[in-house]
Design brief:
This protein is α/β, with parallel strands linked by helices and 431 residues long. The protein contains 12 helices and 21 strands. Bound molecules: flavin-adenine dinucleotide. The site of flavin-adenine dinucleotide has 43 residues, from helix 1, strand 15 and helix 12. Flavin-adenine dinucleotide (FAD) binds next to helix 1, strand 15 and helix 12.
């Protein structure tokens, strides 16, 4: 794994706090900031040796490239866009989509419009059927779309993180697709700046949470942390793998919600491609070859770095990053010719499902299981809250959604702290 390019300075954590937070990704950072701002004693415990979780920016030849999240989606409802502006961060609106290239030929304006219309028709059909009483899969909801039907189906499966038949149409709101932003220097580096000054212990894994007593006790690889309440932001597939043992076991409705999600997959082939046929910066182009279709973000931040986007079926079918690198090169060679790819170098292929502390890119709700997002948000024994991208309905699978859910959990904890959760004395207060 390439190393992150931003390492904020952090404060040490105490062994007795008001709120213990598991995980220093977007949800954990958001919760910690809010609780700190309210004067609460917080400890964030993070198993990795860095903050950010599924947002991390690495340097390739001195150029920052995000290995996880890169788009600040849905600017009108994403709190991180406003926060970035308020802090004077270099945030900018993403340009409109790039060209549609079909079998090596750049489509005309009319063809691009045809592709765009097909996408919008699918989106409208999903939105309409999401309001119907009966739930169904995205596959069953997809209308006939003509010439670009297969390409649009590919894109929808890529966005959803699973094959269309495995995704509920009621859990696929379309707000995410529009009004996107980028932050120069990377989303991961931005999140790392937001973590600066927080009490976060890195390289320390939470292995168990004991809530049999009045508060909670976190069992970690570096000892116990006592707290009045806990916010758990570990990704759902990590919870499904029982990486954190709860004592007593979680109530059946929460365990059922956790078990109901599917691990979605989405990865990037990160390429350095001087002389690529794509000239404009930060545009998401669509490359259609025979009956396949892949997105490519070109010339990120104006430098010759590109992402080829990989969907779950391609990731699963290829059998590992080396095979995906070879696949990407061959796909682009077939599309643009051997000369065009002569200077293309694959720098890295992400593999988030193989990361034991993520096991997914984002989680997905299968047909018939829509209530599980809300179910996951219910407190356990008025002492433990789960928060993260999995909780978010409107901003599902995004950093902005995880951030809002971290803040939601923090507010819920605050309300309970003011309402009689047992006080855990600090070492100094202990006689
Ligand atoms: C390749 C890729 C591209 C993406 N693109 C975008 C995008 O462009 N825009 C967007 O908005 N979203 C995107 N996403 C999704 C986005 O990254 C996630 O939705 C978001 O980062 C999730 O934040 P979180 O806080 O819920 O979880 P995480 O970021 O996963 O944070 C959870 C933290 O918990 C830690 N942890 C886990 N188990 C333990 C334990 N037992 N003890 C202690 N710590 C533990 C983990 O190490 C992690 O740091 C992308 C994801 C991927 C993988």
């Amino acid at each position: 794994m390439p190393v992150p390019n931003a390492r904020p300075s952090l404060e040490p954590v105490s062994a007795e706090v008001d709120v213990a937070i598991v995980g220093a990704g977007a949800a954990g950072i958001a919760a910690a900031r809010l609780l700190r701002a309210e004067g609460r004693r917080v400890a964030v415990i993070e198993a990795r040796d860095r903050v950010g979780g599924r947002t991390v920016t690495a340097s390739f030849g001195g150029h920052p490239v995000d290995l996880g999240a890169h788009w600040l989606h849905a600017g009108h409802m994403n709190p991180l866009v406003d926060l970035a502006r308020a802090r004077g961060e270099p945030v900018r609106q993403a340009p409109p989509g790039g060209p549609v290239v079909t079998n090596g030929r750049v489509g005309s304006g009319a063809e691009r419009r045809l592709h765009g219309d097909a996408f919008e028709r699918a989106d409208r059909a999903f939105a309409r059927l999401a309001r119907a009483e009966e739930d169904r899969s995205l596959k069953d909801a997809l209308p006939p779309l003509g010439r670009y039907g297969r390409a649009v189906a590919y894109t929808m499966a890529l966005i959803s993180g699973r094959p269309l038949e495995e995704v509920s149409v009621k859990d696929f709101p379309s707000e995410e697709f529009g009004n996107n932003y980028f932050v120069r220097g990377g989303y991961g580096a931005f999140l790392a700046r937001l973590a600066a000054g927080l009490p976060i212990r890195l390289g320390c894994e939470v292995t168990g949470i004991d809530w049999s007593g009045p508060g909670v006790a976190l069992e970690t690889t570096a000892g116990r942390i006592a707290a009045r309440a806990a916010i758990v932001t570990a990704p759902v597939p990590v919870l499904q793998a029982d990486r954190i043992r709860f004592r007593p076991a979680l109530p059946s409705d929460i365990a059922d919600a956790i078990g109901g999600f599917l691990a979605g997959a989405y990865d990037h082939v990160i390429m350095n491609w001087p002389g690529s046929p794509f000239r404009t910066a930060d545009r998401l182009s669509r490359i259609v070859l025979r009956d396949t279709s892949y997105g490519m973000l070109t010339n990120m931040d104006g430098a010759p770095f590109h992402y080829l986007e990989l969907d779950q079926a391609t990731i699963r079918g290829a059998g590992g990053p080396a095979a995906l690198a070879a696949f990407a090169r061959e796909f682009l060679r077939e599309s643009f010719g051997a000369r065009a790819v002569a200077r293309l170098r694959v720098l890295h292929v992400t593999d988030w499902c193989a990361d034991p502390l993520a096991r997914t890119s984002w989680v997905v709700v299968p047909p018939g299981r829509v209530p599980i997002r809300e179910g996951l948000g219910r407190p356990v024994g008025e002492r433990i809250w789960f928060a993260g991208e999995a909780n978010s309905g409107p901003l599902w699978g995004t950093v902005g959604g995880a951030w809002l859910e971290g803040e939601r959990a923090a507010r819920a904890v605050l309300a309970r702290l003011g309402d009689g959760l047992p006080h855990i004395p600090t070492a100094a207060e202990t006689p």
